[in-house]
Fold this protein.
Amino acid sequence: MSSLVKLWYTDAFVTVHPGALQQRLEQLTSINEQVFIDTYKLYSQTEIGLWLNDIAMPTLIMTGEYAKGSGADVAKHLSDIVEGSKLIIFKEMKNGILTEIPDRVAKELDAFYRTAHNTVASPL
């Protein structure tokens, strides 16, 4: 588990929010072990590449620049396959973008939704 810790948040975030790392560890250790194993077993056996080019709707792909497993290289690859997708790579971020920069993620989601659905801006 300790090898995963450095994948989640930037050092600056952990310094300012020291409880975030502990909270994330508690979340992970509270997951039922068999559910965790079964989920990752399914994840490792699932091949999404076969149907990515069938996606025919607005698609937003976001990740942190230094995220592992689903980082910038993977996101770029997905964006190349999914025609018309929008790619956002948050500079200097890791895997924990939903915790570390939720306002930026929400802003991008809102802008993407408004663009894809031609709606008026929300009060975010």
User: Anything to note?
Assistant: The longest helix spans residues 102-117.
